[in-house]
UniProtKB/TrEMBL annotation:
Monomer. Coiled coil: none annotated. SUPFAM superfamilies: Glucocorticoid receptor-like (DNA-binding domain), N-terminal domain of MutM-like DNA repair proteins, S13-like H2TH domain. It comes from Halalkalibacter kiskunsagensis. This is Formamidopyrimidine-DNA glycosylase. The gene is mutM.
Amino acid sequence: MPELPEMENYKLLLSEKVVGKSVSEVIVTREKTINVPVTQFTTEVQGRTIMAIERRAKHLLFKLDSGKSLLLHLMLGGLMYVADEEGEIDRTKQVTLSLGAMKLFFIGLRLGYLHLVTEEQVQEAFSDLGPEPLEPTFKENLFQELIAKRRGMLKTTLVNQKFLAGIGNLYSDEICFEAQVLQIRKANELTDEEIKQLFKAIHTILQRGIRLGGYMDVPVHKKDQLTGNYSNHCYVYEREGLPCPRCGGVIIKDVISSRKSFYCKQCQK
């Protein structure tokens, strides 16, 4: 499932392509993907201009000039692709937005969704989300307060969207590796120094993920050479049996709270 770096990468690359463009045609091929009747969705989106794209946690918001937004959650298997007239992608599309000569495809949204929402509905949808870890307001003292209240393992704490917004399975493992702590450690039992390391690791890993284009394996458009590069630079995730890039120990694959997890037992404590 796409996490914060993947969705931030989508936001940045799509903003270059579609912000300021008007929607000339709407095609919905799977009604369950949207939240209103197809005729209403088409009427309210067609002819509207995409004013901005914003990210919150693992969601994207396509802000329309009507004051409403398209709220996207890709969930497992979802992706987006921008094509010109010669750049069709051979995937099943659930929603297609034509933007002049370009088309924005929403693909693989069997579990995900693209909802037409008001500002009130946006606020309601995001009301239970925790802080954005890369926001300037997210300081170390706030992180210390939040984590002191948690009794569970680091793995389940980091992926809990009510604790922090946007971190999932892959980056929780990478963060724990960077901080040199095991995912099975109890959050409230970390030392002050380990909390500092974890706070720093969250910023380091998420920013690295964005810089390397996340791990999605399909580019955003045909000239996109950034998306997916993190897959080739993971420290531990999906590297079972390979040497640890820090100490040379063997990377272990395990299941923690029903989630596959990867770590180096030699240098993560």
